[in-house]
Structure formats: structure tokens, C-alpha cells
């Protein structure tokens, strides 16, 4: 085949040498706009896994690259007058110029034609090519020419950064955070040869503009950065090799995803590779890795399907299918890390203490978890756990195992919780006339013995017409109150667990069948009239609710107050108001379901007016020493609906009204929603509200392991974790997860103690067997 790689970066050079090495008959050219052996940029970071892949792909170039690597294990943080360090992270770096020079020499040795100082405008300049590889960077001209086919999704991110270097070798991957009068600046620093380090400085657009950095030339920008980071530089000068860029050389990162990676131009197949196809933020240092992995996979697919013209289309389809998965994984991690740095000032740097800030930074991509940190640096993590436990009031003796964050106590108002795990409200739809029955006693009693600190029953309705289904719990009469008292007494008799109640009103989602007879489907008989913020049915064939008038609001408010009185009298210790999931109060908060034109519709203040009225009336009669939380749908997952920024506004309003905690859920407001599911997918909402609004939060959603909970709590992303479905599968989830991570000091019910030792022994045996 005749192959032309447009762009002489890592992707084009590595593909050229791999294809020539595997099939010398190919005629391959790599066309680069710069001069021979010339490049811009400083160092790049590799992983051990990347090097293993390169050794398999081309041992000769891998050996030379490995000889040039600088290795380091430590990460150091400079922050608020402290200097913290942890080890075991295993980075390797090399100068970008040195890397390209090695690949250029290897290409020449194999017979790949290198064409320099040629600026390619179009793929049509190579009509004899069978395959044209567009690896011409994030601003690819080739991709732009076929934008309708490639479907690029380019997002310019808000932060500004400048890519510099310094003739000082840092012995750790160093992060330096410095606050100026206009905001925070952070430096990402790592060495790549014996005497030189990359020095990337990043800040927000607001700080960039306030300091007038866009009006400076490059040298003035460098002088500015030298002044901010003078202590870390310790007399070393900052350098640039981007004099070709105009102005101050501060850039915005461009996040790129393409819908398709290859096209046929009528004569040649054209495929994207490297930054022309996708970008990953430098916060996790994977841009070069992605480019090299692209080259390896494309060459492997030719090996698999044949090095001939006839199979090119099949090869390109297989290449894209395989690479899209890994690229998405890396981009997700990079997005998490990128977004952390974009909000680091207002969300973390201003609020977190140095140890927790360091933990948050280390886990910013969500690829590194609590137990992974223990594997990397047990000493550092146990020191952090000791600090976290001390803040929770636990003094751990020398030599004792420090409890992980999820097993530390937590106090809200006058209520002390034994740990940070709660059984989330989960609808069972098994009541008759709203009454707790033997099923609920057995169900919740089992979970009360399972180690969690706070036990919630399902959403409990404040009136008969507030129910979702005929099987919902209620609290509107004396008999229901008596059964709640029975439940509270039972839970208290079984151990340390406290009892919470979530009061709610179904609104437009009411009068439906129990789920196993048809989720959200309206009752065929026995239905009751529905009310909502506006007259909008949940499903097209659902009952049409009536838009509430003032008399309806008065009645519903009074129903919530009456139920609050009953909950307090029954001995319930935690009260939550349900303002999420499209139920009545949620329908006021969301613009999707609130179409009112009076004082209860329109602005955030108007949409929150009635939910706040209900909350304030409940708070006024709820005992002052008992906590009260509000569950919010923090994202409607539908265009035109609420997004996390809206949820933060509502959270601030409830905080001012006296809420202690925001329970951060999402969705179920609009039937046509498009949620983006994934591990811990709702935790970012708790993180935002906790650290920007300044109120405690509960994280919920796809939290299924102790490792998840410990990572969330240790990083300060939430104060409590609500575990739902895992508690359905395992009533003793908290006890079992504690045992799984080696915590044997947690008490089990005395009736089950004979099983505790055997369970822990079996876990230890299984761990030993898997390690062999």
C-alpha cells in the first residue's frame, strides 16, 4: 500500500515505523510542517503499561525510549504554606523533542520517507495514496474538510494555561497552588531529563482577565509566573519554546470527540489518529499515550485483516470500534481531572484543609480509589485516615487500625451517627392503607442489624391522595403513627442504628399501579384526583393533574406539618423532605413541570416559593435538636430542565431556611430523560453543593463498595453515603464491606457473632488464594 501520514507527531511517526516494520513492501511517507528534528513542547508522561505495549510493538525503539526515561514515584503538593508528599505512583517522563527524534531515526532506519517543511492543505494532494492518516493535531485541516462525515464535537474549556519549562529537575511530580488577589493559580511540574522539567501554569478565565494576562507578551507572562511560583522555582528561570505563538501564549484546552474516524474521499481512505481524532486533558497526561495506542491498534488490525488495499475499510471499522472504547475511558478520567482543576479554587482550595485537599487532588480522575492509595502508599494513607478520624472525634492508639472514613462517627445537630452509611429510602409498595406491616418490620429490622448508622423507610406520604400507589406507606392517622413508633422501638432495640423518615407527596406521579404490575402505569380502578404545579400528565395516557390553587397549597402544607408532628411523636430522629424525582414539590422546582405564570412560576425564587413554605412550616414544628434534610433532583437530564447549577441555587435557599443536609439525587422528573449512568454518577452533585454552597450533603447512586464510600467521604465530596440497591441484595452490607477491607473491630449483633470470625477467615483465605 501507499500510506501517507499527515503530521509528524508521535501518532504519525509510530504508525509509519510499525507498518514498515511489519510489511516492508509498503511505501510510507510522514509529512511534517516543521523542520527536521524540530518540535515544540516540553516533556510527556508515560505509564508502565504504555511501555509494555511499546516493547511488544517495536522492541528497538522501546529500548531507546526507555533508556532516555526519567523515573519518579512521588507526588508533592505545595499548598497553603504546607508541603505534602506521597509515593508509589510510578511516573516516567521523556522530552517530547527527544521522543520524536528517536521515532524519526527509527523511521529512517526502516525506510519510511520523512518529508519536512511541507504544510499540507488537503488530503487531495496525495491522489496516489491508498491510506491517508490525518494526525495533524487538534486543529486538523483534514478533519475540517470532512466535518460532516467526521462529526467533530469540539468544546473549548474555560481555564487558561501556558506550557513552559525550567532548567530545574524536580524529584517528584509537583503541584503548586498559589492564591493571588484575583484567584488561584496552579503549576503542574514534572522532570523529563536530568536537568529540565515541564512547568504548566493554569488558572481560571476570571483570574486571567483580572490580571490582564491577555495583554502581556510571552516574556511578561513568564515574569508573572516566576513571581507567583518564586518559592518553588528557587531562583530557576521559566523558559518557552513556543515563540511562534502570538501574544501571551496562554491557551484554552479544546476537548474533542469525533462521531466517526474514517471516510473515503473517492480515491483514498482517510483516517483520523491522535489529537485529530480525540483529545485528553493534560491533567492526567494521556495525550501521547492515546496517540501511540492509536498507532499500535491500527497496525494490529492490518496484521489481523491483511496488509492490502481491499481490506482497508474493514481494518478502519475494526480500529475505530476497538479504540473508541479505550479512548472514552481515558477521556472520562481526563474530564474528571480537568473539571477538578477548573473549579479547584472556589470549590476546594478555599474550603478544604491541606490533608483533605491533597486527597481530593490525588483522586480527582476517579481512577485512583481509597484502597488503591493504600497499595501505593500505606503509610501516607493511614496517616490521612488518622487525621480524618481525629476530626470525627476518634483518638486511635498507636498500633491500632484506624477506621476508614465510612466507619467514622458523624454528628448533625443533636444526633450522633455511629458511621457515615445510611440505608436509602427504597419504595417497597407493600403497605395496606399506608400502614407499616410485618414485611416492613422484617425488611427494615434486618437492615438495622446490618451495620448502617441511619435507616430510612420508603417515601412516606402525608395524605391518602399523596400516594404513588395503593401500596405506599403513609403517616396521616393514629394507626400509622403507632406502627412507626413500633418500627422505631424495634430498630433501637437491635443496635446503634437511628431512624429517618422521608415525607413526600406524589403529585402528578400518583394513582399508579405497583411496579410489578406496570411501572408508572395509571390505576385501572380506584384512582384518586391528582394535583401538581401545572396541569401536565406524567405519561401521555396518565391522569391529567389539576394545577394547584392557594387552597390546595394550604391543605398540602398542613398535611406535611401534621405528618411532621406524628413523626416526632413516634420518635423518628431524622426528617427528610422529598423535593425530587418529579413528585409534587419537585414539580414546582423544575421548569419542565412548572409552567405557571403567577408568583409560583418562572424564576428560581418563584419556583421554590411553595417548597420552601412547606419546609419552613415543617422545620418550625420539628424538634430543634433533630436534623432535617431535603432530597433534590440535581439534574433533570433533559434539555430545558434543571442542571446542577440550578440545584445549587435551590440548595442555598433551603440552607438559609434551616436545612442541615441536601440529599443529592437526580432525574425521574421527565419521562423522556437521558441520564448518563456510571459508577458514582450522582456524586458530583453532592460535591458541588457541599463545597460551593457550604452545606452538608448525602451522596447516592451507584455506590456499591466500601472503596466507593471511603473515596467520596475522604475527598470531602459528601458527608454521608446513602446505599440503596446493595442493601436490598445484602442487608448486612456495611458489616460485610468492613470485613472485606480488613476491619474486624466493627460490632456484629451478638446473636450472629459465631458467624463473624468464619466470615472474616473465609475472606482472608480467598484474598490469599487470589494473590498466588
From TrEMBL:
**TM region(s), chain numbering:** none
Residues in the signal sequence: none
Ranges of residues in domain NADH:flavin oxidoreductase/NADH oxidase N-terminal: 408-734
Q: Which domain of life is it from?
A: Bacteria
Which GO molecular function annotations are given, in alphabetical order?
FAD binding; FMN binding; NADP binding; NADPH dehydrogenase activity
InterPro entries according to UniProt: Aldolase_TIM, FAD-bd, FAD/NAD-bd_sf, OxRdtase_FMN_N, YqjM-like
Q: Which Pfam families match?
A: FAD_binding_3, Oxidored_FMN
What is the protein's given name?
Bifunctional salicylyl-CoA 5-hydroxylase/oxidoreductase
Q: Which organism is it from?
A: Bradyrhizobium niftali
Amino acid at each position: 500500500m501507499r500510506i501517507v501520514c499527515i503530521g509528524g507527531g508521535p501518532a504519525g511517526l509510530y504508525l509509519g515505523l510499525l507498518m514498515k516494520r511489519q510489511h516492508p513492501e509498503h511505501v510510507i511517507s510522514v509529512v511534517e510542517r516543521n523542520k527536521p528534528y524540530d518540535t515544540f513542547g516540553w516533556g510527556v508522561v508515560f505509564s508502565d503499561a504504555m511501555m509494555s505495549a511499546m516493547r511488544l510493538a517495536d522492541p528497538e525503539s522501546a529500548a531507546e525510549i526507555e533508556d532516555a526515561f526519567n523515573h519518579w514515584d512521588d507526588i508533592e503538593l505545595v499548598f497553603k504554606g504546607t508541603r505534602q508528599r506521597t509515593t508509589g505512583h510510578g511516573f516516567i517522563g521523556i522530552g517530547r523533542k527527544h521522543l520524536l527524534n528517536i521515532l524519526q531515526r527509527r523511521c529512517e532506519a526502516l525506510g519510511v520517507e520523512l518529508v519536512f517543511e511541507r504544510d499540507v492543505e488537503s488530503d487531495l494532494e496525495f491522489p496516489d495514496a491508498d491510506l491517508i492518516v490525518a494526525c495533524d493535531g487538534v486543529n486538523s485541516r483534514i478533519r475540517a474538510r470532512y466535518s460532516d462525515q467526521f462529526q467533530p464535537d469540539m468544546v473549548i474549556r474555560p481555564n487558561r494555561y501556558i506550557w513552559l519549562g525550567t532548567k530545574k529537575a524536580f524529584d517528584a511530580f509537583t503541584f503548586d497552588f498559589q492564591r493571588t488577589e484575583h484567584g488561584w493559580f496552579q503549576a503542574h511540574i514534572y522532570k523529563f531529563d536530568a536537568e529540565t522539567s515541564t512547568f504548566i501554569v493554569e488558572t481560571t478565565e476570571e483570574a486571567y482577565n483580572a490580571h490582564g494576562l491577555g495583554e502581556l507578551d510571552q516574556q511578561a507572562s513568564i515574569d508573572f509566573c516566576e513571581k507567583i511560583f518564586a518559592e518553588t522555582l528557587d531562583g530557576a528561570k521559566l523558559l518557552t519554546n513556543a515563540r511562534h505563538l502570538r501574544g501571551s501564549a496562554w491557551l484554552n484546552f479544546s476537548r474533542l470527540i469525533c462521531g466517526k474516524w474514517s471516510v473515503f474521499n473517492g480515491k483514498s481512505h482517510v483516517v483520523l489518529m491522535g489529537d485529530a481524532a480525540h483529545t485528553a486533558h493534560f491533567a492526567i497526561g494521556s495525550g501521547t499515550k492515546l496517540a501511540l495506542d492509536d498507532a499500535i491498534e491500527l497496525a494490529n488490525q492490518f496484521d489481523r485483516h491483511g496488509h492490502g488495499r481491499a481490506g482497508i475499510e474493514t481494518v478502519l471499522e475494526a480500529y475505530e470500534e476497538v479504540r473508541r472504547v479505550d479512548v472514552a475511558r481515558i477521556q472520562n478520567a481526563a474530564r474528571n481531572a480537568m473539571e477538578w482543576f477548573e473549579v479547584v479554587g472556589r470549590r476546594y482550595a478555599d474550603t478544604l484543609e491541606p490533608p483533605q485537599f491533597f486527597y481530593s487532588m490525588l483522586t480527582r480522575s476517579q481512577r485512583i480509589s481509597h484502597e488503591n492509595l493504600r497499595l501505593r502508599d500505606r503509610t501516607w494513607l493511614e496517616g490521612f485516615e488518622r487525621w480524618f478520624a481525629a476530626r470525627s472525634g476518634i483518638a486511635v492508639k498507636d498500633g491500632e487500625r484506624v477506621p476508614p472514613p465510612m466507619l467514622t462517627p458523624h454528628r448533625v445537630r443533636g444526633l450522633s451517627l455511629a458511621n457515615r452509611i445510611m440505608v436509602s429510602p427504597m419504595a417497597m409498595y407493600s403497605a395496606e392503607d399506608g400502614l407499616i406491616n410485618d414485611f416492613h418490620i422484617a425488611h427494615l429490622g434486618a437492615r438495622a442489624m446490618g451495620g448502617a448508622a441511619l435507616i430510612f423507610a420508603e417515601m412516606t406520604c402525608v395524605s391518602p391522595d399523596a400516594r404513588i400507589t395503593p401500596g405506599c406507606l403513609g403517616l396521616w392517622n393514629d394507626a400509622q403513627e403507632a406502627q412507626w413508633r413500633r418500627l422505631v422501638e424495634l430498630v433501637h432495640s437491635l443496635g446503634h442504628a437511628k431512624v429517618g423518615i422521608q415525607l413526600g407527596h406524589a403529585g402528578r406521579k400518583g394513582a399508579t399501579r405497583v411496579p410489578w404490575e406496570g411501572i408508572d402505569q395509571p390505576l385501572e380502578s380506584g384512582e384518586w384526583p391528582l394535583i401538581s404545579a401545572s396541569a401536565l400528565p406524567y405519561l401521555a395516557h396518565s391522569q391529567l393533574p389539576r394545577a394547584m390553587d392557594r387552597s390546595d397549597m394550604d391543605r398540602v402544607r398542613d398535611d406535611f406539618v401534621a405528618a411532621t408532628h406524628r413523626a416526632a411523636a413516634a420518635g423518628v430522629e431524622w426528617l427528610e423532605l422529598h423535593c425530587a424525582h418529579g413528585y409534587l414539590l419537585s414539580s414546582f422546582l423544575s421548569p419542565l413541570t412548572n409552567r405557571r405564570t403567577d408568583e409560583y412560576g418562572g424564576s428560581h425564587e418563584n419556583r421554590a416559593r411553595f417548597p420552601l413554605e412547606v419546609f419552613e412550616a415543617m422545620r418550625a414544628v420539628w424538634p430543634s435538636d433533630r436534623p432535617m434534610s431535603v432530597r433534590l433532583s440535581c439534574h433533570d437530564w433533559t434539555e430545558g430542565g434543571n442542571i446542577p447549577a440550578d440545584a445549587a441555587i435551590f440548595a442555598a435557599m433551603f440552607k438559609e431556611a434551616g436545612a442541615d443536609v441536601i440529599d443529592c439525587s437526580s432525574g425521574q422528573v421527565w419521562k423522556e430523560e437521558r441520564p448518563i449512568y456510571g459508577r458514582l454518577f450522582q456524586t458530583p452533585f453532592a460535591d458541588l453543593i457541599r463545597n460551593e454552597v457550604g452545606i452538608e450533603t448525602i451522596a447516592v447512586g451507584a455506590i456499591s463498595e466500601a472503596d466507593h464510600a471511603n473515596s467520596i467521604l475522604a475527598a470531602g465530596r459528601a458527608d454521608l453515603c446513602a446505599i440503596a440497591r446493595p442493601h436490598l441484595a445484602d442487608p448486612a452490607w456495611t458489616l460485610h464491606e468492613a470485613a472485606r477491607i480488613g476491619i474486624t473491630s466493627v460490632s456484629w449483633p451478638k446473636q450472629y457473632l459465631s458467624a463473624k470470625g468464619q466470615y472474616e477467615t473465609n475472606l482472608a483465605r480467598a484474598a490469599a488464594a487470589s494473590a498466588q
